[in-house]
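Can anyone check this?
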Amino acid sequence: RFDMSEFLHEDAVKLFMGDETGRPGRLGKVLSEHTRGILLFDEIEKAHRLIWDLFLQMLDAARITLADHRTYDLSGFYIVCTSNIGSQQLLRPTRLPFTTLERAVLSELHRSFRPELIGRFDEKIVFRPLSPEVQREIGRLAIEQELGRLREQGIELEVSNEAVEFLVRRGIHKTLGARPMKKTVQKFVGDAIGNALKSKVTPSGRLNVSPRNRRLIVVTSR
């Protein structure tokens, strides 16, 4: 996975493509270590336009020559790009059918990228916004992962339904989706444990929402 926001500026392009001194760059390092798999370029619209040109090679001939003058074979890879282009269309309250919104998002995509680049992708998929049920499932998975990590440290916690809803509401972002969920869970659960330790209370117990609904607290059984 490549976070393309790291290669927004021209001076960062060499970090991705390598340079004439023989340094392979981030992409070349991955391709020299692997011959097959999935290359995920996350938020491709944030990359510098010089990097966009690389995809014309990659998607057409299934090979690429980078700045270190080495040519890499890409025939064993799937290439996947994600983008937030057009996401505002999906997040606006509307009664329009999804197919109409999908066309609007794809139109914006075509306005943002050169036609020869868009045409080289076999599939263009527009994802629906996360439903409340899916949001809760993502939240529960993040919570379970955090509780498992704490369990290894000797801290046993269970989470009330109210605490789950509290974390899900704060872990879902309008434009970032569920990406902040993991950090949100770590922050609020960590704060609850820290506050329990400060109060000289054992951090094991049940996570509840505080009476003022601003944080989580550890409630121990007596």
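Reply from J.R.: I decoded it. The mean pLDDT is 89.
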